[in-house]
Amino acid sequence: MKHLALRCRIPRPDRSVSVMLTMLAASAGAQARVWVVTSAPSGLQSAIDSATSGDTVLVKTSGNYAELLVDGKALTVIADVGVQVSCEATVQNLAASQRVCLRGLSFIPADPFDRNTPGLRAVNDQGTVSVFIALDGSF
Prior knowledge:
Layout: E1 3-9, H1 17-28, E2 34-37, H2 42-50, E3 56-59, E4 63-64, E5 68-71, E6 76-79, E7 85-87, E8 89-92, E9 99-103, E10 105-107, E11 120-123, E12 128-134
Parallel strand pairs: 1-12, 2-3, 3-6, 4-7, 5-8, 6-9, 7-10, 8-11, 9-12
């Protein structure tokens, strides 16, 4: 069974990425890492490929990234405050116990004129894909 959770909220200015990352790392256990992406566009996929389940990928550079692929691992991918990240994304092969959280990203298909191809795809997933968006583009 596929689960796709979409949540919208009006952002609060008192939220900070560093506090949230600290909380995510603490809840995921001592082994979780935070991968910081400072180069576009290849840095994001490289960080995702290097990460292991439970890790967080923090994107600090705005840009249009090539296809983002999360394959069989539970990750959190977050765009930093004020950072605009656009990409086509595929989350695939999640086990039932795995969750991928995507926060602050914009999903666009590689060909924006192709109405048959979504900007975000969940393929062969038993786990959960959570997408957090805000009305003003922040998270």
